[in-house]
Amino acid sequence: MATEKDTPDPPPVWARGDAFPEAPQGWGWVDAKGKTHPCDSPEKLMDAIRGDRDGSVNLVWTQENPRMILPEELPGTGDALRAARERWTRDDLEDVKHKLRWFGMACVGFGGWAFYQGLVRAGNPAGFPERLNFAARTVLSSGQSGLALLMFLIFAFIPWYQARKRRRELGEWDDARIAATVPAMRFETWLAWQKAPTTRILLALMTVVGLAQLFCHVRTAGWDSLIAVFQNWDGIAEAGLVKGRYLQGEWWRLFTAPFLHGNIVHFLMNASALIYLGRRLEVFARWPHLPMVFLFSACAGGEASARFVAAPSVGASGGLMGWLGFLLVFETLHKSLVPLSARRRLAAGVFLTALIGLVGYRYIDNAAHAGGLLAGMSYAAIVFPKSSSTERPNSTVADRIAGGACLVVLAASAFLAVSRIIGG
Is 313 known to be catalytic? Predict the structure, then answer.
């Protein structure tokens, strides 16, 4: 007689047969925005998969399947998928090579100009080795050269490396390889379809504060200043983590600074990380832990920054790194919830963040990143015990009360930041 212990656990929610919506009649596909595209025949559907240039074919349906499935799960799509990926990876690699060339030229240009300025400032009386040494130190200390190198790394080198890796892996794309990618792709596709209202609330709060900064920036510098996307926004002195004023008693800056950003690029990078990490945390660990981890990690990161970094700090990076650290530990403790390849991508995110922080140490608050990461990891290790269950943990009444209170604190902090920015 079978016992409860002998009953196998169900698959994780993203791997179940009912993970995706019911299929309409006939054949067709769904894009990443959820728009359906009916097809007249299986051949038309195969043509759509083969002609997919950028991953637009998110899900497919056929008469044989009651639910939508991934293109990789549809029998007989191997050749069409390989043809689509061949074109996709080729175009992607060509695009990033173009960026690599232009960002590389900018990096060399800024570095060359700093080197020339160093030679000029060294003066003729100095010997050539001394002038060369002084010019090299000028390049290393140049803010423009450092920023150019950081942008080269973020927007050119890392995308080029990833595109080259995808292109190389395409040579191994046989039917077995396609089948092996299904769990990770199914996980990511299912996750993208999930609602994450608390994540959207935090994004909205960050956007409101960003708009207040932008308003004051335009009011001060005019509309023409928006062309300079790396130009610093206003509001940092009024609500950012200005270390001297914080340590002298303006404790509220620890709560307002995470909602401010230095410029539009800083804002957009953090917003994209917030959407992905927030949804992943909210869906698997439940919504109350989203504001609790963010608030705890942002405060820990801000405190670390106040102790180790003299320059003013702004940005949600401490809280976001807390989410990243939380997910690393939480998903390790709940291995059955998430495929291994998806967990490895989180670890790769930590490595890339550390690399970017090393290159851009003049502009990136590594103390806030490290403090937030460790806080998030500690939270997950303390709050969530190890489990082999494939079911997502449920939130308790105490969790919902504490999470709601933290969400109120975050909302109040955002509106305090707006009032300080506009009033200042």
Answer: no
